[in-house]
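Researcher: Quick one. two chains, 929 residues in total.
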Amino acid sequence: LAWPGGLLAGALLIDGAYAHAATVVGGQMHFHLFWIGVLLFTVPAVLRLSQVVVARAERLTIVAAVGLFDFLPRFLRSPRQPIFFDELAHWRQANVIYTTGRLFQPNPTVHMSQYFPGLHALIASLRDLSGLPTFPLGLVLLALLHVIALLGVFVIVERLGHSAHIAALAAFIYSLNPSFMFFDSQYAYESLAIVLFIWVIAALLTVHDAGGEGAHQAAWFAVGLVLAGACIVTHHLSTYVLVVVLLLIAVVTTVRTVIGHETAGTALLTWTFALLVTAGSAAWLIFASGGVVDYLVQPMASSVAEIIRMLHHEQQARTLFALSTTPQYEQVCAFLSPVLMAVGAAAGLCLLRRQRRRTSAALALILFGLGYFPSIPFMLTEYGNEGARRSWAFTYVGLAVLIAPVISLLLRRVVLWHPAGRSAVGGAVVALLCIVLVGNVSMSMNELYRFPGPYVYGSDTRSLDGELMQMVDWMRTTQGTGQNVVADRYSGLALAAFGLEWPAEVSWAFPLWQLYFSVHLPSAALLQQIQHSHYRYLVIDKRMARYLPRIGVYFERGEPQAITRTTPPPAAALDKYETLPWVIKIYQSDNLEIYRFNFAALHVRPVPVQAGTSSGTGRGSAQ
Amino acid sequence: MIANVAQRRLVDVRAALPPPARLPLVALGVMNLGVLMPLPALRAALTLPLALVVPGYAVLTAAFGHRPRRDAPLTLALTVLLSMATYPLVALALSAAAIPIRTGSVIVSIDGLVALLVAMAVLRTRRERRTAGVSVVPFVTTTGLRSPWNGARGGMLFAALVAIAIAALAAALTLWPAPTDQPYTQFYLAGSWVHLSTIVRARSHQKLVVDVGITNQTHRRQRYQIVPRLDGGPGWPGRTVTVPDRQSWSGSLDGDVPADGCVHRLSIALRVGRNDKALSPLTLWVRGAPGTVRSCTTTSRMRGKP
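Model:
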């Protein structure tokens, strides 16, 4: 009863950690409570999985429980509404598709979501059938997907010829990947696509495994294609990584066919499957999602350029855990995690050399999993760190395949040497896996994403306070949806998601930051651009002049002094609109203002404004 | 006679449709009826589980044929994932046919797809019988160790564990103190003024009446003082109102605008409570009715038409 009891106790303690974080400001007690809660379940669960004589059904149950348990932190972070950046974009997208009944609707926050409507179509269809609102429905699906993902890894490892013991350990190792607890638990397209990715590989491996059984192979071939089709229309990165993995499996299978370790039929089936999926994704890329290449290649190219500049000592590396509020032990674990994975991978490779039965798919997956290590240096780059973290959700499949047999072998061997040693080795293995878990969670998300708490300007998640939400509600109720709005990143995010407005996309070609950063009037060219683009509202958050944004930007990475800014813009830059006749202030709260543009009055010169009537007296609530 | 024919046809249909083929069709029928449920909770409880199982089960049946599936957890996981994969593909097909995704179109398309897949499964089974082929199962399990987690009992145990955890969490959530937002006040133009987009033209010899609103989000009853001010014009009387917490008030302010043809700024400030804390003012622009020429800037007369 250790792990079921741990599940209940751990869930309650994590709940307590979230309640503490939401109500008590400062300190690190919520971190400690959180990890005690996680370990209350994880330790007995892994200890049970490590035991050799455990029923397969119980292993599967523990794996399913791990999937559900790992979804709990995301659920408790915000059980009633989406708050993460991607969530807000996809939530809006699903709502718009549900309302209009049409796919491929443009999205102001994540443009690519327009071309990959898989998740939104699924939600819209299920909303139509069940009548549930988008967000609760999304939570139900995400919890299920979390379980299905780990069961998929279990199937992959079993199909590679391993025991249920190793398969369950591999599923647990996969659950340690940095994206699993938070990033792939959020309401976003990757959370669905990654599960499809895993099961497409499982389908292909079953096709391999069922060599000679035509009906079985054909059935899994068809099932794999259905899943791959859904993946193609759901998420770009998952699809392209899937194509790479499938082609890798096909190449390794071909090489092993030439050597005589595989049959020609298996190689032919593998190539057919891989090429069909490749053709499908290429067709989708060409006919439905042309802009995705730039979207993916640009950050990759920038991060490679950053690495090259670092190697030439022309640029300093990004400081890891800069401004981090996470406890010291989390940061230590984060640095230890790749080292432990490297040790595990090295041991796995040694074991692989001794194994007699090696399958083509296992070799290809391991090769793919080793891609984790070259991606680590990208954590030091500004443009590549996010991509590196996101790639680990994929490469951990290969790492799980490589490392799980090592743990199993270690536990079996120790029993042969000394029966009492198994507990010690089991404990050590659990401790190491827990270090990886703590480190990976810490390096994937900062405190602001992980825990609720007081308002923090410029943090995406903690910027969504009641004042902003009520402003959005007022705007939607009185001005309607679909309005073109000029706003900073944080107000714009809420306006787009909850108000269904259309915030302006800021860039050097459309430098709207002029409106906020300068005490002088914006250039005539910019005003003309705003007028001709039919922007009707200007939203100002006065906290902009008091705080630096937590994530370093007021609008986007290309803005002047992004990341490097040391003082906020002057308050006068935001107050100037109170004396300009071409804007009308229609809404005011302690910190937020809505102006309406009246470009017809651009050249009006009013009666001089009397001293003491502009906003010097306005005081907002303290952060 | 007619009854006999009907009965015979029913028997024929039942013979043509083996129980595994009838199961998804019955579930589909229940799901379709569930959509019509008037109670939202009942509708969701009845429809969602079936919607997440039926299409995937139909795909599995068409692909693997009719066979008892012994590895229930993995088969169920694959079934649910296949259902999730089916909806986007069906939605794409609808989109390609320029049919909007609505309750009716989703139901009809899913019904059609499931019926098609079941028909494929039936045909497949008949052909296999003729060719003495055998259906296959997606997951083959070997006989394992005895455990309370095996079989249906294990599934029930797991479901009970999850249900207890959810109940405990739900109970705990009500016990923790709720976090409170920072207090704030919303102050805005109200009535038809909410759509104001131009300079307001004042009429001669008529007071200008402006509608404003206040919403109190300060977590306590609050006294507000509204202070209007027209630059270069006569004083406007203010108002004092008291608004309970989480309540709104709306009312109007009025005052004179000089008949000078000039554009004046009307700023309406809001003082909150007794400590004289003030919000930045709402600002709107008013043009006085044409009249006595004063020394206001002349361009406003020529080019300031809203």
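DSSP finds eight helices and eight strands in chain B.
Researcher: Thanks, that's what I needed.
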